[in-house]
Design brief:
The complex is a heterodimer.
Chain A: E1 10-19, E2 22-32, E3 37-41, H1 48-55, E4 63-68, E5 71-72, E6 75-78, E7 81-84, H2 87-94, E8 97-100, H3 112-123, H4 128-141, H5 157-169, E9 175-179, H6 187-202, E10 206-210, H7 214-220, E11 223-228, E12 231-236, H8 238-244, H9 249-258
Parallel strand pairs in A: 3-10, 3-11, 8-9, 9-10
Antiparallel strand pairs in A: 1-2, 1-4, 4-5, 6-7, 11-12
Helix pairs in contact in A: 3-4, 3-5, 4-5, 5-6
Chain B: H1 17-30, H2 36-53, H3 57-66, H4 70-73, H5 78-92, H6 96-109, H7 114-127, H8 130-175, H9 179-194, H10 197-207, H11 217-243, H12 246-254, H13 259-289, H14 301-312, H15 315-343
The chains are: A alpha/beta, B mainly alpha.
């Protein structure tokens, strides 16, 4: 299939993911266009994180199809069952998708600079000099270059998350996934992380954000999706979403609880 | 009764005079010159011995002292004999002054008597303060023990090079998803952790030849120790790897790392700090477990100590061996504490 600007970056269709008897994602389809900022909201256990993790194959899906730049990727059918593609292909796909976790997961045994260099160095096989230049540029971008030589244990939560973002964007990904990036932070540290994500959004990065921060969702999103029990209940632009769907009982309840 | 001889000592119950007369007569008949003098001194010696054997030290001392100087009646060796007996007797009751005096008495008449000379050395050694004795023994035994120590260290070093590597491979095999390798690794751990090391050494050295595999003692020893310790280390390393937050693996995967890359760059380096205390423990146990290879014809520290002890019955040997083991384990303890702080530096604020 030809790749052009109009082809969605990622197309998910008919995604089903089960954990035992529980259906975490129930036949979900989703197209993400280049440059789109998608925010997924919903109560906990609704399958938001699982969906996000399915996009970079951290969660293996049971049914469905994932297309990256128009090409079907990630899975091969073996004996009628969906099996993850060869590890090398999966790794290549993942290196195009950056991910930021709720709990940062910085590498504690490496300095801040080492953390950000790690992807370019190990995965993209860049020379240490190149990797260092990239890492320094990324740390500058998230405003934490002065901490480059310290270990993550000495950083605040907000600083850690900014380093984690720098680590992800150092790979020059085509898509960024944010899995509740501010949920583990003290309220006063949330701002600096949002500021960083906002600046990334302005540069035109395609991103999917799972968050409970409605203010941020409204501000940054091109499209908001409300998810519950593994399906999309409603979606739309923030304006549409926060006005039109407010009469939806379930969404109203959810928003009332967290706002 | 001073004139009794060993041959008719049973007559001491009474009525021995007629028998003695018979004895003297027969002596007279057998030799033209009656050995009265010789008989007398010999009697003192024999009686002294008898008294000694009954534990009557005082009587024995009196009798033995009565054995006359050789100068008076010519020499039949009984003087030296009696004085040596006395010396040993005094030595055994720790009367070193008297023992020395008696020995010197012998040397007065026999300046070249080696036995007396040696015994004097023993006395001076025994009567000298404990620390000097210990020092002298140390000089005497240390070279042989040092040889054994070198062998022990050699075994320990080879094992601590081989077993972590082998242990890591077994651990990764256990963690990995390939079933046959998983089972094989499980089996290896099961066997080598589930049977005594001593049995494994015996098997490798004595039973393998039955299957056509004959090994040098040293090869067998290194094999046994390495396999046994690999099994233990494999489980420790597996625990270490699995104790690392799964988020670390996910973060590595999300960057696009392969399994090998994430293990090598992210997971295993984080286990070092956690592994140091239990691995240090294992290596200290290893130092002591090398003593077991003495059972398969290896002469290491324990075996050297054992050989020396069985020759000299000197407990200094055992104390020295214990000190050497302690020194080795202490060095390991300190080294591992140091390594732990170095590899775990990133956790300190």
């Amino acid at each position: 299939m030809k790749t052009d600007k109009t082809t969605p970056l990622i197309q998910l269709s008919g995604i089903i993911k089960r954990f035992g008897k529980l259906t975490a994602i129930d036949n979900v389809s989703l197209d993400i266009k280049r440059g789109e900022k998608l925010v997924i909201i919903g109560p906990s256990g609704s399958g938001k994180s699982t969906l996000l993790r399915a996009i970079n194959f951290l969660e293996k899906i049971d049914k469905g199809e994932i297309r990256f730049e128009g090409t079907r990727v990630g899975y091969v059918i073996k004996k009628g069952r969906m099996t993850l593609d060869k590890p090398s292909r999966i790794c290549a796909l993942r290196s195009e998708i950056g991910m930021v976790f709720q709990h940062f997961y910085l590498f504690p045994h490496m300095t801040v600079l080492g953390n950000v260099m790690e992807g370019p160095l190990t995965v993209q096989k860049k020379t240490p000099e190149e990797a260092r230049d990239i890492a320094l540029a990324m740390l500058d971008k998230v405003g934490i270059v002065d901490k480059k030589d310290v270990f993550p244990a000495t950083l605040s939560g907000g600083q850690k998350q900014r380093v984690a973002i720098a680590r992800a964007i150092a790979m020059r990904p085509k898509l960024m996934l944010f899995d509740e990036p501010t949920s583990a932070l003290d309220p006063e540290l949330v701002g600096e992380v949002f500021e960083t994500i906002r600046s990334l959004a302005k540069e035109g990065m395609t991103m999917v954000v799972v968050t409970h921060q409605m203010g941020f969702a409204r501000e940054i999103a091109d499209r908001v999706i409300f998810m519950e029990q593994g399906t999309f209940i409603a979606q739309g632009t923030p304006q549409e979403f926060f006005s039109k769907h407010m009469n939806n009982e379930r969404i109203k309840n959810f928003l009332d609880k967290i706002l | 009764m001073p004139i009794l001889s060993a041959t008719n000592s049973k007559t001491s119950r009474g009525g021995y005079t007629p028998l003695l007369v018979v004895f003297l007569l027969s002596c007279f008949l057998l030799t033209s010159t009656p050995p009265v003098r010789a008989q007398n001194t010999e009697n003192f010696l024999v009686q002294g011995k008898n008294a000694l054997s009954t534990g009557d030290i005082e009587t024995a001392a009196t009798l033995l002292r009565k054995v006359p100087h050789p100068g008076i009646h010519g020499d039949d060796g009984s003087f030296a004999q009696s004085r040596m007996l006395l010396a040993r007797m005094f030595f055994s009751v720790k009367d070193f002054a008297q023992a020395t005096a008696v020995c010197q008495e012998i040397l007065q008449f026999y300046p070249d008597n080696q036995e007396a000379k040696n015994f004097l050395t023993s006395i001076s050694r025994e009567s000298s303060p404990v620390y000097i004795q210990f020092f002298q023994d140390t000089i005497k035994f240390l070279p042989a023990l040092a040889k054994g120590t070198v062998m022990t260290l050699f075994l320990v070093l080879l094992t601590i090079i081989i077993s972590p590597v082998l242990g890591l491979l077994i651990a990764l095999g256990r963690i990995g998803s390939f079933r046959p390798v998983q089972s094989l690794c499980w089996f290896v751990i099961w066997i080598f952790r589930g049977t005594p090391l001593l049995l494994q050494l015996f098997f490798i050295y004595y039973a393998l030849p039955t299957f056509g595999i004959t090994l040098q003692p040293i090869t067998a020893a290194i094999m046994g120790l390495s396999l046994n310790y690999s099994a233990y280390l494999a489980e420790i390393i597996r625990g270490g790897i699995q104790s690392i937050d799964y988020g670390q693996t996910e973060a590595a995967k999300a960057l696009g790392m392969t399994y090998t890359q994430s293990m090598r760059r992210i997971i295993i380096p984080q286990t070092y700090k956690r592994l140091m205390p239990p691995i240090g423990n294992e290596f200290i146990a290893l130092i002591k477990d090398t003593a077991l290879v003495s059972t398969i014809a290896m002469v290491e520290l324990m075996r050297s100590a054992d050989l020396l002890f069985n020759t000299y019955f000197n407990i200094t040997v055992l104390i020295l061996a214990a000190l050497i083991y302690l020194a080795m384990t202490s060095v390991f303890t300190l080294t591992f504490e140091k390594i732990e702080t170095i590899v775990g530096a990133y956790e300190n604020r």
